[in-house]
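Running this now, will post back.
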Amino acid sequence: MAEMSIARQLRTIPNQLSLLRLALVPVFLWLVLSEQEGLALITLIVASATDYLDGYLARKLNQTTRLGELLDPAADRLYILATLIGLAVTGNIPIWLPFVIIGRDVLLALTVPVLAKYGYGPLPVHFLGKAGTFALLYAFPLLLLAQVWQSAQFVILPLSWAFAIWGIGLYWWSGVLYVKQVISVVFDARKNH
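Update: finished.
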C-alpha cells in the first residue's frame, strides 16, 4: 500500500483509537496523583483495550500506517512514565524505580543523534524490549489494583513486583543489546567510509 498523507493517516480508525489513548494519558496521571486509583485503573483498562483494538483493526482493515507504528509505542511509553510519576509522587513505589526505568530510555535517546550522524534512523525494536514493556504494563495496573483492593494486597503486590522486576531486567537487557547494535552500525559505517 502506498504511504498516505499524515492527514489521511490520522483519519484511520486505528490511529483515532491511538489518539484517544494518548489523550487519556493526562487524565490517567491526574487520577493517580489525586489518589483516585479505581478511576485510574478503569482509565488504564480502557487505554489497554484501545491498544489491542487499534492493532487488531489496523491489520483487519489493512490500515497499518507509519504514524500508527509511532503512536503505539509512544502511548505505551507515556503510560509507563505517567504511572511511574504518579505512583512515586503518591509514595506507592520507591523513588529509585522511575529513575531506573527512565534512565534506560534516556540512554537509548542518546543513540538517536549518533545513528543520524551516520544516516540511520532508530533501529528496530527488539523483542526483549517488547517483553519488558509488556511486563511493566502488567506490573503497574496490578500496583494500582493493590491500592484499590487492599485486602488482597498480600497476593497482588508480590505478583506486581515480580512483573516489575522481570520488566526492568528485560527492559535493560534489550537496552544493552540495542546499544551493542548501535556500536556495530557505527563501526561498520566508519569501516565503509
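The chain has a mean pLDDT of 89. More later if anyone needs it.
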